[in-house]
Design brief:
314 residues, 8 helices, globular
Length: 314
């Protein structure tokens, strides 16, 4: 009986990274007959089925999906999965050997938690980051907590699981698929080629709260996050801050009807003061966040978007 579907969504992965991700899955302590492996090849230039061997796992499948974007890849994985618990794994996530076994045990012990994920996400940098960017490295889905932490407050981002190692019970995955179709804004939910959109991870958590349970993170769910040199460059992080702010502003409006806050003169002055205190790069990030909010306001207006009013306001 398949209890877990391990789903890797990937687009043009680094071969060395993907190999290490798969090696970590080979080492899982959960017996292979209890979980399946789905490799969702999201419009990669070279089809992964040609050179990526999954024969070591008796319940592994290559699945090609040509609609570019993390959200379409996740939707395909949800549609194909047979497990009761779906575990989403990025193509740069090294799971500890007990990850799947630990994840499989959590729903039975924490019935008040729906969606959950890794409480320990430690980096392995290809290139040591410049000190100026370190205050912003949390944007790369890094965290470490000492105890299980959960909430049913959708504004509590500290407890929200990241997409790396995200664990989603089937009932919430099915609801996610339905809700994404109704949102009509799936193109700004998550990464799409070079676009650094995001927010799809949080939507899973919000849907669990809408079903009267919470979401949380567990330190025993541990991942090493492989981070290539390009992702600690200042330009990349500025783009990431913009994409994060833009996507979340649109998503919060569409889910809860919360309109983005306009940039006032006072907020602009505070941004300048923040930059003078913390440096040029920090100011660039603050301006990127402000632009993201403004772009979200324009996007909502141009599309004449209206929230579907499915979830209760926080």
């Amino acid at each position: 009986m398949i209890s877990i579907s391990a789903i890797i969504c990937t687009h043009n992965p680094r071969p060395d990274y993907l190999r290490r991700v798969l090696d970590a899955l080979k080492a899982q302590t959960l017996p292979q007959e209890q979980w399946e492996l789905l490799l969702i090849d999201n419009a990669s230039k070279e089809p992964l089925a040609k050179g990526c061997d999954l024969s070591w796992h008796p319940q592994a499948r290559h699945i090609r999906d040509d609609e570019l974007g993390l959200t379409p890849a996740r939707l395909r994985g949800i549609a194909e999965a047979e497990g009761g618990l779906l575990v989403f794994i990025d193509d740069d996530n090294i799971l500890t050997p007990d990850y799947l076994e630990y994840a499989a045990a959590i729903p039975g012990s924490y019935s008040h938690i729906g969606v959950f994920g890794a409480g320990t996400l430690e980096p392995e940098f290809e290139e040591e980051p410049d000190p100026a960017v370190r205050p912003w490295l949390h944007m790369l889905a890094l965290r470490s907590v000492s105890r299980p932490t959960w909430t049913n407050n959708v504004a509590d981002y500290f407890c929200a699981p990241h997409g790396a190692g995200l664990c989603v019970p089937r009932r919430f995955a099915a609801r996610y698929s339905q809700f994404v179709r109704e949102l009509r804004t799936s193109e700004v939910l998550d990464r799409d080629g070079e676009n650094l959109f995001c927010g799809g991870d949080d939507l899973f958590s919000w849907l669990s709260v809408g079903s009267d349970v919470g979401f949380g993170i567990f330190p025993g769910l541990r991942i090493t996050h492989l981070i290539p040199a390009g992702r600690v460059r200042q330009d990349y992080l500025v783009r990431l801050v913009h994409g994060h702010t833009f996507s979340h502003a649109v998503l919060r409006y569409m889910v809860y009807g919360t309109k983005p806050r306009p940039a006032t003169a006072l907020r602009r002055l505070r941004t300048i003061a923040h930059g003078l205190k913390n440096g040029w790069f920090s100011m660039r990030c603050s301006w990127a966040a402000s632009r993201g909010t403004g772009d979200a306001t324009q996007f909502i207006s141009e599309r004449r978007l209206q929230p579907p009013n499915i979830l209760t306001s926080p």
